[in-house]
Amino acid sequence: MLANGGLSWAAGRSEKSSSILYGWAEASSFATPFVQDPDDRSPVVGTIDIEGFDANDLCAILRRNGVLDTDSYRKLGRNQIRIGMFPAVEPDDVAALTATIDYIAERLL
Fold first, then answer.
1. Do residues 22 and 46 make contact, with C-beta atoms less than 8 angstroms apart?
2. pLDDT at 48
3. Are the beta carbons of 108 and 57 closer than 8 angstroms?
4. What is each CA distance from 95 to 2, 6, 7, 9, 73, in whole angstroms?
5. What radius of gyration, in Å, describes the C-alpha atoms of the chain?
């Protein structure tokens, strides 16, 4: 982290990833950000509501293909996924994940 510019670099990287994720969800026909107000959304962990198919099925398909830890917060009891956007996560990986989710969703809808 320090070699890349410290805290400002880390915050900027998470912001880039969160812009990708939330922008995708806002444009999606089946996904919406759980937190409606953009100012209140986490730049580090994005929670996305899913409509039209079971998010658990999506998570199971992702898990079988090596994408782990997308499960929702169980206590909320909602049909949703949770995506980590920590500084260690490449923003391009978040973009690839959203494309992968779209691919899966086309087959689940």
1. yes
2. 98
3. yes
4. 25, 23, 23, 19, 22
5. 14
Dig out the tokens for 28 from the structure.
């999606």
Confidence of residue 74 (pLDDT cuts 50, 70, 90): confident
Cα(24)–Cα(102) distance, rounded to whole angstroms?
Answer: 10
Task: Give the bridge partners for 32, in sequence order.
Answer: 49
pTM (2 d.p.): 0.94
Q: Distance from CA of residue 31 to its chain's centroid?
A: 10
With b for 16 or more beta-carbon neighbours within 10 A and e for fewer, the 91-103 pattern comes to beebbebbeebee
The set of residues, in sequence order, having a beta carbon less than 8 Å from that of 94 and lying 6+ positions away, is 17, 20, 21, 83, 85
